[in-house]
Specification:
This protein is α+β, with helices and mostly antiparallel strands. The protein has three helices and three strands. A hairpin with a 2-residue loop joins strand 2 and strand 3.
Length: 94
């Protein structure tokens, strides 16, 4: 990785204390909060490649600004949409 500064809107790359590298891309503001996506890799070259891929996804609108659901939210969705079609009602009730 070179020591040159990145341009505005190109994302950030920095090294973590454990030696790995992290890249962050700004997705703008949503509900009054700044939304960023992060990716962590072992080397600087790997994180640069991942940042380029994230940038392409963000520009095409395929990178979600929504947060990852909590375990409680995911279980609620799983029970109502997935498990209800695959298990008996008595199992679902338990």
């Amino acid at each position: 990785m070179s020591g040159k500064r990145r341009g505005h809107g190109e994302g950030s790359i920095y090294q973590l204390p454990d030696g790995r590298f992290r890249a962050a891309i700004d997705l703008g503001w949503s509900n009054g909060k700044r939304r960023r996506k992060y990716v962590t890799r072992r080397t600087g070259a790997e994180v640069v490649k991942a940042l380029k891929e994230m940038t392409v996804l963000a520009e095409t609108g395929r990178l979600s600004t929504k947060r990852v659901p909590t375990l409680a939210q995911w279980m609620e969705t799983y029970l109502s949409e997935v498990a209800s079609a695959k298990v008996r009602p008595s199992t679902l009730h338990r």
